[in-house]
Amino acid sequence: MCGIVGYIGPRQAQDVLISGLSKLEYRGYDSAGIAVHDGAQIEVKKKAGKLENLSTLLEGQPMGGSLGIGHTRWATHGLPNDTNAHPHATEDGRIVIIHNGIIENYLPLKEGLMSRGHEFKSETDSEVLAHLIEEAYAGNLEEAVRAALSQVRGAYGIVVTHVDHREIVAARTVSPLVMGVGEGEMFLASDVPALLAYTRNMVFLHDGDMVVLNDDGFRVMDLAGNPQERPVEHIEWDAEAAEKGGYDTYMLKEIYEQPQALTNTLIGRLHDETGEVNLDIDLDPGSFKRISIIACGTAYYAGLVGEYLIEQLARIPVEVDVASEYRYRDPLVSENTLAIVVSQSGETIDTLEALREAKKFGAKTLGVINAKGSSMTRELDDTLYIHAGPEIGVASTKAYTSMVSAFLMLALWLGRARGTLSEEQGAELLKAARELPRLVEEALAPERVARIKEVAEKYAMARDYLFLGRGVNSPTAYEGALKLKEISYIHAEAYAAGEMKHGPIALIDEKLPVAVIATESRLLEKTISNVQEVRARAGKVILFLSDGDTENARHGDDVIYVPRAHEMVSPVVNAVAMQLLAYFTATALGKDVDKPRNLAKSVTVE
């Protein structure tokens, strides 16, 4: 998961590295460190904890030099302490490396190195790389890195520098790396936002790429040394788009960015006059007999909404899989299967490996992805970009609602192409989709936000929460529970409301808040019956109702109204209320919503 930054050019490297790492701390904040080459030696400074600890250390001991590498860590091997923090150096300090990923065979490699006299300082798998490079080094750093990597098995984004060379050598397999191309300077990072303050010209490295950066520019080759052509792409985001923009937190900013994000997802793709959707997808919609949606976490819940939408509108059997389990259950896949992978970053390792498993058995593949140039986009048959823009908060908000909107468009596209959705029905749903940015903006009206804040603070001291929903909004309940768990650390569970009486009803007492999504739908009456079951056992009902539903308001201890929306698009609108409930609960408890404990934004280790 970790964040990587590298720089070579005329600037003070320390400033570039700290600036870049501050944009990547969402990838890990167990420790941080930098190494700076001043022309004579490489100095390393690192500190456990958040980046501010390293910044405080550097205030009194600045590092001079215009070449450097930096790292912010999410711990896998070894405790999050100063010693295990990156960068790692060889005993003589001449070779310094940073690494993102996991070296699966590090133990036998380490044992072999120790038997040959190498001494290790840390408990990390990453330090093995420094020693392998040292052992292979004979004057050419590029060759030494290549020789070292030929011995390792696993995932890596690795960046290396040597005291005798004014260059940075980097390579990647699975773990992402992107280069920034400046005027007489070169940058390297795990993600685009780290570099936007300096350049918007980026080169996305592919799996198996190695790159050498120096004052003259860069060279890309594969791990066998064969030159590779990688285009320079201009990124439209500006640096401010990755900043808080006046909000207290990234998460709150991104909640409020959802009307624009949804506009970006939908724009240019909806054609009212024909009731059709143009997704610029070359796949043949008539060739699929079944669809597998594969994802993790929040993206998985977006996929569950997609299951409802696709089956109802396109009449194709759909199953949704947790990516981490997919390839281990020996899935039934054929050339008539469409595998849809869902990921904000396009780098989620479990999802990436599931994608490869599906391809191995002949499935056609489609990605619902936010990040352009990511690993998944280079292996997919086709990609449906959600265009949500950079999402920095660890708990996904605008990416989730954009993913759900993308699934709505995909279901419409499939339904119209397969003849299961009439032009009239398509036009009705297109109109509902077009309303989404306005409806979400309305959901963020000050009086609505204030009401949710009031309810959140009322129940902030609860030890447990239950979320209930039905039909297309049962995944919204799952997502609401996940958001609350992620950022408030309150235990929360979610169920399809009809399942409550099959076990979870035993949990209900007068101390348990039960959040129920009861917006307008064909199952509303049944949902209200489930609410009655909760109230009969003294549970505290937080009822989410569509505007104007005064009749059902009497069934809730607390009522939160959301804008009335077509049932098929309501999961997007209702998700905003779930996000705000979780957000204000967490802030009432004094939690760091942007950097929840134990979590990282992009999960690139299995």
TrEMBL record:
Catalytic residue list: C2, K601
Subcellular location: Cytoplasm
UniProt main location, coarse: cytoplasm
Single GO biological process annotation from the record: carbohydrate metabolic process
Alphabetized UniProt keyword annotations: Aminotransferase, Cytoplasm, Glutamine amidotransferase, Repeat, Transferase
EC number: 2.6.1.16
HAMAP family: GlmS (MF_00164)
Listed name of the protein: Glutamine--fructose-6-phosphate aminotransferase [isomerizing]
Species whose genome carries this gene: Deinococcus soli (ex Cha et al. 2016)
